[in-house]
Design a protein that fits this description.
2 domains
Length: 175
Amino acid sequence: MKSPLSFIVKIALSSQFVILLCLSVSAQNENGPPAFKPGLEINRDELISKIIEFDPTLVFKQKKDSIGLPNFVAVNSRGSNIQLIGKTDELVLAKWIFIPSGDNATNDAELQRIQWFCSTLGGPNGWEWYSVAIAEINKASDKPYSNEKAFNYNRKGEFKYSPKEKNYTLTFVPW
């Protein structure tokens, strides 16, 4: 014979489950999925601030609009050129181009800056993706390299290396 206490416990647990299920369904109906945001879903001014905080030698200047959108560019003495195109809350392109010099220490430091940029826009997957790309390039630095990857927040990254032009290009655009 079952004790009345076990029956009461079963009813209590069942009712809690039903309540949680109803609350869960209610919360999903009220909030729904997050709204789609255009562009890269990152604030341009906040990204510029993060970049400058990471590398104070970079100074962004607004240049002539590109594709009808605000165009901000920063250049440093180490061979990097950063371009951000888009409205403050609708960034449509974030690009970092690096032309290596003969100084290996400077080149390594600049490639680490690009890796930081990649992880800032791509998260932990961006860090790993970049690391794999650099390893592939180092195996065959005389051959061109290109790789694309989709990331969270509506971002697609493309990493290219051109031995002919002797440059690395990391680009993020919406996908």
